Amino acid sequence: MRVRLAVSPIGWKNDDLPEIGADIPLERVLAEAALAGYAGIERGGSFPTDPEVLRRLLARYGLALVGGWVSGRLLELGVEAELRRLAPTLELFRACGASVLVYAETSGSIQTRRQVPLDQRPRLDERGLADLARALSEIARHCADAGVPLVYHHHMGTVVETAAEVDALMRASHDSVGLLLDTGHLVFAGADPLEVARRWRARIRHVHFKDVRPAVLAQVRAKPTSFLDAVLAGVFTVPGDPTGCVDFAAVARVLHQAGYDGWVVVEAEQDPVRAEPFTYARLGRAATEAALLAAEVAA
User: Fold this and answer.
1) Distance in angstroms (rounded) separating the CA atoms of residues 37 and 291
2) Which of 159, 156, 153, 152 is nearest to 136 (CA)?
3) Residue 29's closest CA among 3, 70, 58?
4) pLDDT digits (tens, 9 = 90+) for 238-285
5) What average pLDDT score do residues 24-50 get?
6) Strands 211-212 and 236-237, how do they pair?
């Protein structure tokens, strides 16, 4: 395959819900990720921050560090202060050979606030999104110069959630701002990930393959629900789960046609007590690999 497969540790341990998977040691996460057949993994909150320690740990399991999430505070801090805040993470990622820095603007975000329903998330008007895009472009240029390109992660509960907001951010930002295409967050936001992939395929530089259970989504949309309560209700799952609804084969075809050669990360925020992590990691890898191989065969 032209792309490599990675997994997010969030199926084992959730940084936004520390009680989820708190008893699972990091060594188990890495061992099971490797045993499930993944070549890489995204960083989680329990990972070492010393580059040499992290490199040795990942090498023990034959895993590459793909990159990892950063909660952006650009709207609060401004460009210069945000660059200073990002410096240690950029250095860690550069030293460990990470491919991308996953950035989401979380100023005012409610994604981690379990008592706040999603309909109360922060929003930016057209001018606000354009201002964010311009500042983000400066951050992205700096990241590119440091050797760790920035990819923007649209996310439920933040200022960039919908397809329209993704479109506005991409249109107003410099090409150095890559797009992280997250199939699950787009479906949750009421968007079609296939359409977004087609529109912005030239800017897609990182991919999360995440599925959504439509039956659960309908339940959480029927009443005011926070993002974390939706997660605990089981709104997300991995590719290959028959209760999901995303057409990963179609998305894979668009990626192949665009010449995408980055990482595809299997990710689904789930309670490890209800969704055994290794089982779902293997299921997600097998289904993702099948979708990507089918796209190559069909080309």
Assistant:
1) 16
2) 152
3) 58
4) 999 999 999 999 999 999 999 999 999 999 999 999 999 999 999 999
5) 97
6) antiparallel
**DSSP H or E stretch at residue 87:** helix 79-95
Report the DSSP pairing between strands 178-182 and 150-153.
parallel
Angle, to 10 degrees, between the axis of helix 248-257 and the axis of helix 277-298? Answer: 50
Provide the CATH number for the domain around residue 126. 3.20.20.150
How confident is the model at residue 297, as a pLDDT? 76
Question: Please, are residues 284 and 292 in contact by the beta-carbon 8 Å criterion?
Answer: no
pTM for the full predicted model: 0.96
Phi-psi region of 157 (alpha: psi -120 to 50; beta: other; left: phi over 0): left
Q: What does each C-alpha distance from 82 to 70, 138, 249, 260 come to in angstroms?
A: 11, 11, 38, 30
Task: Say whether 127 sits in a helix, a strand or coil.
Answer: helix
Number of domains in the chain: 1
**Nearest-5° Cα angle at 129, 137 to 67:** 45
> What is the distance between the alpha carbons of residues 234 and 280, in angstroms, rounded to a whole number?
13
Amino acid at 68: G
Distance between CA atoms of 95 and 282, rounded to whole angstroms?
A: 29
CA distance 269 to 254: 25
Give the pLDDT confidence score for residue 299 in this predicted structure: 55
Q: Identity (one letter) of the amino acid at 237?
A: T
Residue 181 φ/ψ, nearest 5 degrees: -85, 115
Burial class of 113 by CB neighbour count within 10 A (0 to 12, 13 to 18, 19+)? middle
Neighbours of 65 (CB within 10 A): 23
pLDDT digits (tens, 9 = 90+) for 41-68: 999 999 999 999 999 999 999 999 999 9
From residue 132, give the alpha-carbon distance in Å to each of 85, 135, 168, 171: 17, 5, 10, 12
Euclidean distance between CA atoms 224 and 73, whole angstroms: 26
Token couple for 126: 């057209």
Give the range of the structural domain holding residue 103, as residue numbers without chain letter.
Answer: 4-298
**Bridging pattern class, strands 204-209 and 236-237:** unpaired
